[in-house]
Design goal:
Helix content is about 0%, strand content about 55%. The chain is mainly beta and about 325 residues long.
Length: about 325
């Protein structure tokens, strides 16, 4: 059964979850509605030492009085096991988008280690991957969700443990329906990266298939291919990928409006180059069917278990939950 992380009054949403040792740490944002730029929206954290059954009291991470704060990506430093969180500060009307990187070892104390000043200000920076020889990478996307060709995406690379980042643009001037957003990626080794991303609905092209994109790179993210998958049971659905020790990929996502949290599991080698070969979905649970007022699954691994954080509710009050899924996919 899902366990509640936070049900305080308000719009608790967009969680990010990771693990520091045996401790789960969950960041989430709270405002008054489904908006990212309200100044009252802040970021809060709780931790659990029993795999998500009980959660600590709330700690404020950041609440900029002039911007809406949202956690947008997470990672782990392999050298000391500390948890990393990207945080976005968005001023009213999307006038500016600032991105900070925080580090924590306990889910109580948070240290801001970098503020990113990028040529293309991202709408979002996603989870951090650790590549070969200590190289850190994250994907990003930028745009205003219009049907004009104002959208782009690419990679960020750091060679000094997140203190500085180099931005690479993979595609720009994209129409909305060719724009991969909110991607989740896994590193398969030998320079190969595989990611899954949302496809946004383009009202000017209602015939467009609403399906997840599959992105692949064979050169450490320098160049990418992009294709539609056979995953069409989505609506503005954010994926979260886990690569298992046996080489399988679990794709977790929330089917909005229907209210289903789902998983598709495939062999990484079988799906590589075959984006329409994803397995049929498993339904793990059902929650709110109230449109975009539920969803945004974010996952982490704890032993043989996969811990899934999501939010669920209505247009004024939503709560953060976690669900523990069996990660044994053999």
């Amino acid at each position: 059964m899902p366990q509640c992380v936070c049900d305080l009054p308000g719009y608790n949403s967009w969680p990010m979850i990771s693990r520091a040792g045996n401790r789960l740490i969950c960041l989430y944002s709270r405002g008054s509605e489904h908006t990212i730029d309200e100044p009252s929206r802040g970021i809060y954290a709780r931790y659990s030492d029993d795999e998500g059954i009980h959660w600590s009291c709330e700690v404020m991470v950041n609440n900029d009085s002039e911007a809406g704060d949202v956690p947008i990506g997470k990672g782990m430093d392999p050298e000391d096991g500390s948890v990393l969180f990207f945080v976005r500060r968005c001023t009213k009307g999307l006038a500016s988008l600032l991105h900070d990187l925080y580090r924590t070892t306990d889910g109580i104390h948070f240290q801001r280690i970098a503020t990113l000043d990028l040529d293309v200000p991202p709408m979002q920076i996603t989870d951090i991957l650790i590549l070969d020889e200590g190289v850190w990478m994250a994907l990003w996307f930028a745009g205003n969700y219009s049907n004009r060709n104002h959208n782009s995406w690419g990679t960020l690379v750091s060679y000094d443990k997140g203190l500085h980042w180099k931005q690479n643009v993979v595609e720009n001037s994209l129409p909305k329906d060719q724009w991969p957003t909110e991607p989740s990626a896994v590193y398969l080794g030998n320079g190969r990266l595989l990611a899954v991303a949302r496809r946004e609905y383009n009202r000017e092209k209602p015939e467009s298939i609403l399906a997840q994109f599959q992105l692949e790179s064979v050169d450490y993210g320098k160049t990418w291919s992009k294709a539609l998958t056979n995953i069409t049971d989505i609506s503005e659905s954010t994926p979260s990928l886990i690569l298992t020790p046996s080489g399988k990929i679990c794709n977790y996502y929330y089917q909005r409006f229907a209210g289903f949290l789902k998983r598709r599991t495939v062999s990484a080698e079988a799906i590589w180059g075959n984006p329409t070969s994803w397995s049929e979905p498993e339904i793990l649970l059902q929650a709110s069917t109230d449109g975009c007022n539920a969803g945004n699954v974010n996952s982490t691994v704890s032993g043989k278990k996969h811990i899934l954080a999501y939010y669920s509710g209505d247009e004024r009050n939503t709560s953060i939950y976690v669900h523990v899924a069996d990660g044994s996919t053999e």
